[in-house]
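User: Could you check the structure of this?
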Amino acid sequence: MTALFALATSLLWGLADFGGGLLTRRIPALTVVVVSQAIAVVVLGAVVVATGAWTEWGPQLWFAVGAGLVGPVAMLAFYKALALGPMGVVSPLGSLGVAVPVGVGLLLGERPGLAQFAGIAVAVAGIVLAGGPELRGAPVQRRAVLLTLVAAFGFGGVMALIAEASTSLTGLFLALFVQRVTNVLAGGTALFLSVRRGGRALPEDTGISAVRAALPALAFVGLADVAANGTYSVAAQHGPVTVAAVLASVYPVVTALAARTFLNERLRGIQAAGAGLALVGTVLLAS
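Assistant: Sure, the predicted structure tokens are below.
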């Protein structure tokens, strides 16, 4: 069950990243984050009311609030790092956040078997390589590296926090709702401050019409991201966090394959090798 739900997390996160990446070509990144998460809040709010999940309210929801605060910071740092580039360095570095939940699992006493330790090493190497790192002396600004590391450990922190935010299915619905409300508040504040400093919340040429036309895609991105958090939480609760976190971090492979399928982007040799290693590591972990 851990392997199944963790791999579902990678599929959902990979598709959400692919969709979000396409949307940010036409709409400012912060607007994509805020609108997609706002749609998720509406849907989750309905689920919480329908299931009576509000009765699960308790101090563990502070973990969800923490995840909701850390998430937008990590996203903003990652987008800024991508803007500074080169993406071939930033993207694979961003996947190193898997070290956070794995480290938490080890500190809590989890001891994977030898095959699983090997799977962790192989899968993490594959995840990094699947991002297509540039290995021929591409210039990298120190600020881009620092922002990427902030984003990576922020993403890892979200994984660790959301896994602690609930112990039941209805509690998970409530935790995801609280996380998304916090996401919207934090992201909305960042968007407001950005506009105050002269940034744009809407595309310069098409304005609000571009956002209206993209609502189905924005809904998919927001709901896929929510579902990924949910499946990861289930995976972490039913098995070793060290295994769940690594398998849930195979999403760069999914994003690369989606780009190959829908945009006809050719995989570089190093990306194909990384995808292969990630799959080998997945088999070892699932064992």
